[in-house]
Write a structure and sequence with these properties.
Length: 295
């Protein structure tokens, strides 16, 4: 499951809504009684949500379980701040701004360090996100210091530009994941087709071997049938005798013989060896040999 797509979509949606509220003032054009308190509350909530979606997306990149757990706890923390902004008045949630700054700045530096560490371990996605997140984080730092009136290098808010760069690299990462997934799928498909071809060739080869062996067995059984028929009378030895011999398979254990004892006496020998096939036919041949020896 690719959760990064969901986080990216939610981040883009949150950025778009915040832009419409703060920069385009679109909500104020259609909702005339929208108070400044509501606008500020919505902005605080959207900032927390944007941070949550950024952290959640970054969490899909890291392989270290320690960093993944750290970001999971950070998400819960920002969810708590969102709940405070949503359910409490401005006298309370205004104070969450400094809490947000004191937590987000160290978290941002730790994310930069973690991305550099992932790049060191040859993680290409981490390299792409490092470039995008660096621009986003540095512009956010500039705007944070500008907001608290400490210092500002460019004397303008740069976060929208950093957000644009970060979203671009996020899209780049997602497109790379799709490309890798597609290439992996094609490679597995090709390997599967090659394996099916190999297995088919092996099955055809075994089938041909079985057909050859079956042909040899049928020839040997036919020869055994012809030999067994030599043991059995082909024509009645006298006018008053009649018989019909039809074995179940090519060779078997059914056997009979008619022998003349003297001028007025005939002997009839009938046997049915248990079983069918070559073993039973072999026993009938022994019986025939014994009858010939004893006369």
């Amino acid at each position: 499951r690719e959760w990064g797509i969901l986080y990216f979509a939610l981040l883009a949606l949150s950025l778009a809504v915040r832009t419409l509220i703060n920069h385009e003032c679109l909500f104020h054009l259609y909702i005339h009684d929208l108070s400044w308190r509501t606008s500020i509350k919505m902005d605080f909530i959207l900032v927390n949500l944007i941070t949550i979606f950024v952290v959640a997306f970054m969490r899909t990149v890291f392989s270290s379980q320690w960093y993944r757990n750290l970001l999971k706890y950070a998400i819960w923390f920002y969810l708590f701040l969102t709940a405070v902004d949503l359910f409490f008045p401005e006298e309370i949630y205004f104070h969450t701004q400094m809490v947000y700054i004191w937590v987000t700045v160290p978290l941002g530096f730790s994310l930069l360090f973690a991305l550099i560490r992932e790049v060191w371990h040859r993680n290409m996605e981490a390299l792409l996100l490092l470039m995008g997140f660096s621009a986003f984080f540095l512009t956010a730092l500039n705007d944070i210091f500008y907001a608290i009136q400490k210092f500002n290098v460019f004397e303008i808010y740069l976060t929208p530009f950093g957000q644009l760069v970060f979203v671009f690299f996020q899209a780049f990462v997602l497109s790379r994941r799709f490309s890798v997934a597609y290439q992996t799928s094609e490679r597995l498909k090709h390997n599967l087709e090659e394996e099916v071809k190999r297995q088919t060739i092996e099955l055809l080869s075994e089938k041909n071997k079985l057909l050859q062996k079956n042909h040899m067995i049928q020839e040997e059984l036919e020869l055994a049938r012809q030999i067994q028929l030599q043991f059995i009378p082909s024509l009645p030895p006298a006018q008053n005798f009649a018989f019909y011999f039809h074995p179940m398979i090519q060779v078997g254990g059914d056997f009979f013989d008619i022998r003349q004892i003297d001028t007025h006496k005939w002997g009839v020998f009938i046997s049915d060896v248990s079983g069918h096939g070559v073993p039973a036919a072999f026993i009938t041949s022994l019986i025939k040999s014994y009858l010939l020896q004893t006369g």
